[in-house]
Amino acid sequence: MRKIWNKGHRIRASDKHLLLFVFVAVLLLLNIKQLMRTDWEHFGLFENGLTLSPYNFITILIATGVYYQMEKGLLHIRCEITLGKYQDQLLRLEDKLESGLYCELTDKTLHDGYIEYTLLYDMIANRYDALPHALIAGGTGGGKTYFLLTLIEALLHTNAVLYILDPKNADLADLGTVMGNVYHTKEEMIDCVNAFYEGMVQRSEEMKRHPNYKTGENYAYLGLPPCFLIFDEYVAFFEMLGTKES
């Protein structure tokens, strides 16, 4: 039995499509070995006949026995634990679900009687809503800057507004040649931080006055773009400051 928890709302067409896609994907993943062994080049439905083994029937039952919940950018997949012959496959689905559904696993929890996989779907659109803050740490040469550049490149494909600070005037500062709101001097960075904070407070006040404002919803509910302050080497920035500025 399949079920969508939708808090009393009508199931959207997009959710139905994703539900069908998850069902087909789980079914294919459970039968991947058989599919890979099939000689598709010489396969003919009428010549070979369509036969289903007991295992095929079991995988169909397993796929229809998975519960799905889609909520706030997260896909929850719950598989019942029956201690059956093919149970081990359901306990190790995370890699297949990530690659097959183009999702990212955020949690895997073993409950009483079932296992729950929580995945972030539509990652580009929902990543910064689900996880809006990040502190990136690592040793010298560990790839922090390349990770930030990758993150910036991904955000540029959205409607996000970016502000980038690079107190060492290094790789991120070079982005100033191709985009705006990139700063590296002490005075510019102080002004940017103050302006970003004041803008955040002002937007919060404007959101509360919006006719469509609803408690508990965020900027996206009102159709506003996300705003990011990306601060490289912020410890170096504090070393620039005097006591009063700090």
Keywords, separated by commas or semicolons:
246 residues, alpha/beta, four-stranded antiparallel beta sheet, three-stranded parallel beta sheet, 7 strands, 15% strand, elongated, disordered N terminus
Description:
- With 246 residues, the chain is α/β, with parallel strands linked by helices.
- Helices cover 41% and strands 15% of the residues.
- It contains ten helices and seven strands.
- It has helices at residues 13-30, 32-37, 45-48, 54-64, 87-90, 94-101, 123-130, 144-155, 186-209, 234-240; strands at 67-71, 74-80, 104-110, 114-120, 161-165, 182-183, 227-231.
- The strands form two sheets. A four-stranded antiparallel beta sheet has the order 1-2-4-3. A three-stranded parallel beta sheet has the order 6-5-7.
- Strand 1 and strand 2 (74-80) form a beta hairpin.
- The protein is elongated.
- The termini are far apart.
- The model is unreliable at 1-13 (pLDDT under 50).
Rough outline: elongated
Largest sheet, in brief, is: 4 strands, antiparallel
Number of strands: 7
Mean pLDDT: 76
The H/E string reads HHHHEEHHEEHHEEHEH
As laid out across the biggest beta sheet, the strand order is 1-2-4-3
Rg: 25 Å
Number of helices: 10
Beginning-to-end CA distance, first to last residue: 59 Å
Structural class: alpha/beta
Contiguous runs where pLDDT drops below 50 for at least 5 residues = 1-13
Query: Roughly what fraction of the amino acids lie in strands?
Result: 15-25%
Overall helicity: 40-55%
